[in-house]
Amino acid sequence: MLFSAESCPSTSQCVNTPGSYYCLCNTGYRGDNCDDINECEDRNNRCPKDATCENTLGSYTCNCPTGWRWNEPDLACLDIDECAFASSCADDNSVCVNTDGSFTCPCAFGYELDESGVKCRDIDECLIDSKSALCLAYGSTCVNTGGGFKCECPVGFYFGFTGCVPEGELNCDIECPPFSTCVANGTSYECECLSGYYPSGDFCFGEDIACKAGFAPESVVCAAVVATCSSLTLTAVLFFMSLICNLIGIEVV
Description:
single chain; mainly beta; Laminin; 3 helices; 13% helix
């Protein structure tokens, strides 16, 4: 439709033509007066089902529900990770857990909600029979800590591998094979063969035992049989055990 230059509405552009001109409505407008198009009513919008269409002059916006944000490239509502904000959980003893469209603040390990249902308070594990009994079993006393507990030994003792041990006493934290003993080596422990035995791999073997040609002491079973054979007297039992030793390559000397 043709208009005079003065009659073009502000929502249009004047387009010159030979001997005349016309008014071209801006995007989002239509009609003789270039009125705003309500894209939300006309359903001429790209808002997904979980978003709300809001009409604006010449356009529209897609408003996402609380906890979601509009992402134009994907034309979708994306979840907001509230846990990325340090202030999401007000209680320092809680842990932020992001959920779809929201978040929760459960108490951290060792804490529980108080009567208000909002604040997290420390759990006194020492009031729990199983925790207190655990410490008592090691000769120690249960001491509550923030979010946990510890077993504290009496003065003059320290908490070792087997419980409270007097200061200065050896507290071996490794398991040694037969015919060996645990000895301190600086700040750690190691296994040392008893007198009359020598190390071979991870085991100790007697020096008065020799294996037959083609055999070598490589297991604790062999060492145990050797010790048994060397201690027997010349009886029927000795004869029986000698047969076993011969079968597994052990020679009593």
